[in-house]
Specification:
7-stranded mixed sheet; two-stranded antiparallel sheet; 14 helices; binds nicotinamide-adenine-dinucleotide; binds zinc ion
């Protein structure tokens, strides 16, 4: 069992990673909350795979589960999904002490977290992330949100920290392989910005992750959740170094947007990391041998390193409009070695164009 403590102003909680933990969620929640009901928000894929085990675990710990299901998919992370959920919570007589448990990937975590932040002005929130991306990234840090389809992703949201994050790597066995690879992109990102040794370990073991070896996944998730937790602790409200988590994401968001979201987030981030690492070499910050190691690992993880179809000008334009651009200058998270990120706002346009060419 791996326990990662998180401590930020106003909140202290643990991230617990343990094979088989789903069966103990009830006990764990019982230790921190003395209520008789617990609401579980989940999606249509998780209903068949893992909701029954979670409900059983809650009943064993004397919770009456209230299950609320939305259809799976990013397109349902919207305001209109919220009203029926609030109404069901009223019907089920949820109170200020009733925990909201998110059982799902990042979509469910963000939406359920927003419900927990807003219903009765705030209920206790428990994360049970089930995708690799949610385990190492979305479930940690307290950002919750829904999309406004006409304005953009995560337009309406709140900071609301979970009371505990409970991770059972065994649930990854039912995750579609493409989603596992998307999560690996964020793991590679974490190692690149913070942990050179972790990067070398992942180079030795990436196939074990792809083969769903639970022992290795437990270790990988624990280490990556810890990296995210340390970055969030250092910058809980996103004023500075949390921006390092955007490594690969300036290019990545542009690639997603220009493909009309047909390129998955993890794939776009993989391509974005190749482009950013390329920029780092062109600015003389990063060794070209290191760039090649990065490309090789991304490729072994089953993620793309080139093949972007969108016209370069469209990508360039999308990057200009990215909301993370400060005072008209594009800010890029770059690397000067494995495990160490640097923010630069002086990347010449010509180098950005070369980087786009390098991933076409
Ligand atoms: N709050 C944050 O800090 C933060 C950080 C990163 C991403 N996010 C958000 O996370 C979302 C993406 O999360 P995601 O990649 O997990 O997508 P997701 O929640 O859509 O999950 C991906 C797919 O896998 C399915 N799934 C999840 N776990 C499963 C399992 N164990 N078995 C079978 N199927 C399973 C889901 O039903 C879904 O179809 C985005 O909305 C993004 O904005 C939030
Ligand atoms: Zn990401």
């Amino acid at each position: 069992m791996i326990t990662v403590p998180v401590s930020i102003p106003g909140a202290r909680y643990d991230i617990v990673v343990h094979s088989g933990l789903l069966d103990a969620v009830g006990q764990r929640v019982r230790q921190i909350l003395p209520t008789d009901r617990a609401a579980v928000i989940t999606d249509s894929n998780l209903v068949q795979h893992h909701l029954p085990a979670l409900e059983r675990a809650l009943r064993e710990a004397r919770f009456e589960p209230i299950a609320l299901t939305i259809p799976a998919g990013e397109q349902y992370k919207t305001l209109s999904m919220l009203e029926p959920i609030y109404e069901r919570l009223v019907e089920a007589r949820a109170e200020r002490t009733t925990p909201i448990i998110a059982l799902g990937g990042g979509v469910i975590g963000d939406l359920a977290g927003f419900v927990a932040a807003t219903f009765l002005r705030g209920l206790p929130f428990v994360q049970v992330p089930t995708s690799l991306l949610a385990m190492v990234d979305a479930s940690i840090g307290g950002k919750t949100a829904v999309n406004l389809p006409r304005a953009g992703k995560n337009f309406v949201g709140a900071f609301h920290q979970p009371r505990i994050v409970l991770i059972d790597p065994q649930v990854l066995r039912t995750l579609p392989p493409a989603e596992l690879r998307n999560g690996l992109a964020e793991c590679i990102k974490h190692q690149l910005i913070r942990d050179a040794e972790g990067f070398a370990r992942l180079e030795r073991n990436v196939e074990r992750a792809l083969q769903l070896e639970v022992g290795y996944l437990t270790e990988l998730v624990g280490q990556n959740a810890a990296i995210k937790a340390r970055v969030v602790e250092a910058d809980p409200f996103e004023r500075g170094e949390r921006a390092h988590l955007n490594f690969g994401h300036t290019f990545g968001h542009a690639i997603e947007w220009a493909s009309k979201y047909t390129v998955a987030h993890g794939e776009a981030v993989a391509l974005g990391m190749v482009a950013s690492s390329f920029v780092s070499t062109r600015l003389g910050m990063l060794d070209t041998g290191v760039h090649q190691r990065i490309v090789n690992l991304i490729s072994r993880a089953g993620l793309p390193t080139r093949g972007v179809q969108a016209p370069p000008d469209l990508l360039f334009e999308a990057m200009r409009r990215d909301k993370k651009i400060a005072a008209g200058k594009a800010r890029f998270v770059l690397l000067d070695r494995v495990g160490h990120a640097i923010i630069r706002d002086d990347v010449p346009e010509a180098v950005v164009h070369q980087a786009i060419d390098a991933i076409r």
